[in-house]
Amino acid sequence: MIAGLVGKTHVGKTTFFCASTLAPAKIGAVPFTTIEPNQGIASIRVKCVCMEMGVKDDPRNSVCSDGVRWVPVKLVDVAGLVPDAHKGRGLGNKFLDDLRQADGFIQVVDASGSTDANGNACQPGTRDPVDDVRFLEHEITMWMTGILKKDWERIVKGVRQLKEDGVALLTERLTGLMISRRHILAAINAKDELKKRIDEWTDEDLKVFVEELRKVSKPMVIAANKIDIRQAEVNIERLRQEFKDRTVIPCSAEAELALRLAAKKGIISYSPGDPDFKVLKEEGLNERQREGLRRIKDLLGRWGSTGVQESIESIYKKELRMISVFPVEDANKLTDHKGKVLPDVVLVQDGTTARGLAYKIHTDLGEGFLYAIDVRTGQKIGDDYRIKDRDIIKIVSAKGVKG
Ligand SMILES: Nc1nc2c(ncn2[C@@H]2O[C@H](COP(=O)(O)OP(=O)(O)OP(=O)(O)O)[C@@H](O)[C@H]2O)c(=O)[nH]1
Ligand SMILES: [Mg+2]
Questions:
Q1: What pTM did the predictor assign?
Q2: C-alpha to C-alpha distance for 199 and 352, rounded to whole angstroms
Q3: What range does the domain containing 336 cover?
Q4: Which of 11, 13, 15, 99 to mutate to test the pocket of ligand 1 (most atoms within 8 A of CB)?
């Protein structure tokens, strides 16, 4: 799974990316700073099972700190877009093509309304971020429509003359956009007018289909950025009113980046997502830095956090429905074959079965799957057992995996 940072140019996508990955990407003084996508690793928090199980863990693929596992997840930051990007305006389709691999989006908007439609600075409060959310959705829908339309005649011919399965043809066309048969069926089933042969769809039906498909295949949360600017507050209310079925997370990527960098230098103690931080080296700070930290403290007091960590967790946990599981090889000691205690956390989508988990760990484990053990209860579970969040699972397979 990979989450994409999307939005208009100059709203703070790369700042958000740097704050959450600590990668050294370029943040811009002018629009269209990012051209090539930046890929990096952020983390989501999972309550570790180490305390509950009374063991000291020895993590391999994640970090455990005070009973919280920081589990790596992928993030991609792409070029910004402007209205009519799907027709090639601004960086146009480049932006959209770089998003093909993303399973879900964190849409960054400038909630302070200080970036106009083309990414230029304007008076705070003058640009309506509600329009930015709408235009981004429109661009994504038009981009998907364009991809389908290029091949529409061939798809219609396949269904009409060659009696091919329309859903299979759509799946084949859209698989490069990380859109699966399941997404396509969900979009069709959501609308009565689409429940007919695909070659009978009108232009209007195709529009309805793509709109539904966008919603089911590319879930999105809104990171309402720049809350450090006063005018953001009323806009966040507006965003929440307008998009009632969406998660709107007040955010300051700039504050998060400052905190993460200060923590890295040992100036403060801060953990992403926390509602506060502690200054460790007061004497090393100049007046400007002190003032900056004071302002961030006020911001945390008012909003509860910088919103960056929440945005990442919201897209992965809530929208993409990722749950965590702790696989072990020794059900008594909770170790792998090298003796590492609770070595890994594996993220799987809700609905994954025990056999699905086995495949995710290694093809051999999946193919040789015999049964699994729910380590908490000691009970044997079958291949169709549905994994629950924070399960500890031992898989018994006819084909062993060592490595
Ligand atoms: N006040 C404020 N400014 C921010 C915040 N986040 C980013 N910025 C500023 O917004 C400007 C654009 O930041 P970027 O992170 O480069 O924005 P982008 O969306 O990646 O822009 P492009 O790659 O050019 O499309 C920079 O001047 C940042 O310092 C924030 O939380 N608050
Ligand atoms: Mg950028």
A1: 0.94
A2: 34
A3: 322-397
A4: 15
